[in-house]
Amino acid sequence: MNSALIPAAREGRFLLLLGALVAFGPLAIDLYLPALPAIAAGLGASAAQVQASITVFLAGFALGMLFYGPLSDRYGRRPVMLAGIALFTLASLACLLAASGEQLVLARFVQALGGGAASVLARAVVRDVYAPAEAIRKLSLMAMVTAIAPLLAPLLGSGLLLAFGWRGTFAAVLLWGIASFAVVWRRLPETLAPGQRGQLPLAAAFAAYFRLATDPLALGLLLAGGMSFAAMFAYITGSPFYFIEAQGWTPQAYSFLFAANALGIFAANFVNSRLVRQRGGAVLAGVGSGMSLLAALVLWLAIGNPAATLAVIAMLFIVVATTGLLGANCVGLLLARYPQNAGAAAALFGSAQFGLGMWASAAVAYEHAPDGRRMAGVILGCALASFAGYLLYRHAARRAG
């Protein structure tokens, strides 16, 4: 633990910066959601092709994280993070200049490869600085900052769409990348001291993944947190077309709904930061997985009923909000179990989130249908898998004593 690196007077700004770095993924996705139909029209692409730009972003994010974690355990957090942010920024420029759906999809993949560095290493930095129990609380506070991105990004994106067209959304992401690189360069210290870095060859640093992948307790946490995140991305991929096309909402009205759901993530993390010391991360993760499963079941029953729109909105709110309980607690418990491989553990957790999110997104986009049935079915499947993962974790934890 290197808490001396961060004076108490600067702790708030430190957590604010880390929360903003974790927001790379949500910001790069949520900002352009209201513009998805406009992007399809502007590039002459199909709805499925534009939705694929979300899917490949998730794939790139998941893949990039797997490299950044062990690299940072070996060489330090700061240089690896700066390299990733630089790649993200250059690819954001390519997204802005894309002339076809194929070019956009490729640029989004490269953009995600870079963006994964900031998101995963910000979590590893928390484990470097804080003890395990306090780290979960700090991760919840960071997640409250991160939740501001999906809260404001669709509203900002719809405003940029009106003022500048769909390319304005990518211009904003480009500026975000430039600003983030400058702030990290000037303000973020190296938190992993040379003596704490692995001295083994790089191949041995990647071997930490084998230990994680064969640990039932770790697998349960990865499944519980990852499938909850996947349910949210099923919602992200399907909801613009369900509400804008099938329900006839305007992009601006949809943005307000999306922001309200993001507010649920903020609220869940606020509650978690207050209760985790008394209740423990394991208990709160169980509450989140149970609530998500119940809400997903009601959503699946209600989605085909034209008179149940309010129920659909309410159940989506619960499904999205509970990712706040599962995310911070599951990753915090995982980092506490693997303190010497915090980068690899954070990377594998983030990769599981975005990798499973990719498959959920692809399942919703497959054979595009705006009626919401496929979205609700995928969300239910994800919630079931998340709850099963939590049960696996509790069973493994009891056996481990």
Question: How would you describe what is shown here?
Answer:
The protein is mainly alpha-helical and 401 residues long. The chain has one domain: MFS general substrate transporter like domains (Growth Hormone, Chain: A). The chain has 16 helices and no strands. α12 packs antiparallel against α13 (281-302) and α13 (281-302) runs antiparallel to α16 (373-400).
User: What is the CATH superfamily classification?
Assistant: MFS general substrate transporter like domains
Q: For the terminal residues, how far apart are their CA atoms?
A: 25 Å
- The quaternary organization reads as single chain
Strand proportion, as a percent range, falls in: under 5%
Count of DSSP helices?
16
Number of domains: 1
The count of DSSP E runs of length 2 or more, i.e. the number of strands, is 0
Given the C-alpha coordinates, what overall shape results?
A: globular
Can you give the mean pLDDT? 84
The parts where pLDDT drops under 50 for at least 5 residues are: none
CATH class: Mainly Alpha
Helix share, percent: over 70%
> CATH architecture, please?
Up-down Bundle
Which series of helices and strands comes N to C?
HHHHHHHHHHHHHHHH
**What structural class results from the helix and strand content?**
mainly alpha
